[in-house]
Specification:
This protein is α+β, with helices and mostly antiparallel strands. Helix content is 36%, strand content 21%.
């Protein structure tokens, strides 16, 4: 179970701890450095992935992980960034924890785009 502070609450009311899903995706993506899930007040989860991974690798890992998850915990969209989140960029704390709120703010346009694309389909 993840930290209460990090819970994602979908607009359906489901509470999701992102860490177990993020860790499972990282285990399936050896060249990825970070996976950050988003979805507060949205209808589904999306992910930002950092590292040297291809869209096909991420898609395959998501398919594998999503198979074992209930529909509301499935990650339905993603974006890849080659540069990892770092202390220097202000997106990671000194002890290595992700600053989820700052990441969401900095990548707001991309996050919004993941939801706009999915809804249009």
């Amino acid at each position: 179970m993840g930290r209460i502070k990090n819970l994602i609450i979908l607009n359906s009311g489901h509470n999701i701890a992102p860490e177990p899903i993020e860790e499972e995706l990282l285990a399936r993506l050896p060249r990825a450095q970070q996976v950050v899930l988003h979805g507060n007040n949205r209808s589904y989860l999306c992910a930002l992935v950092t590292g040297e991974v291809s869209p096909q690798q991420v898609g395959t890992a998501l398919d594998e992980v999503n198979r074992a998850l209930p529909h509301y915990k499935q990650v339905r969209a993603f974006r890849i960034h080659s540069e990892p989140f770092t202390i220097e960029s202000g997106l990671v704390t000194a002890n290595g924890k992700l600053k989820r709120d700052l990441i969401a703010t900095r990548f707001q346009a991309e996050i919004d785009d993941m939801y706009a694309v999915k809804q249009a389909v």
